[in-house]
Amino acid sequence: MFRQRLIAPGPVEISPAVQLAMAQSQLHHRSPEAKVVVKRARELLRIVAGVSEAIEPLILTASGTGAFEAILTSLVARGSEVASVSAGKFGERWGDMAKTLGYTTHQTRLEWGTSIPVSAVTTLLEANPNSKALLVTHSETSTGALHDLENIAKAARAVNPKILILVDAITSLGMAELQLEAWGLDAVISGSQKATGAPPGLAFVYLAPSALAILESSQATAYYFDLRRELKVQASGETAFTPAINLIVGLNASLEPIAAEILEHGITAWWANKKAMNNALLECAKALGCSSFAEHPSPACVTLVPPAPISGRELWQALLKRGARAQTGQDGIKDKICRISFMGHFDRYDALSFAGLLEEALLDCGAKFTRGVGVAALWAALEV
Question: Which of 8, 33, 94, 122 is the 20 to 30 A CA-CA neighbour of 116?
Answer without folding.
Answer: 8
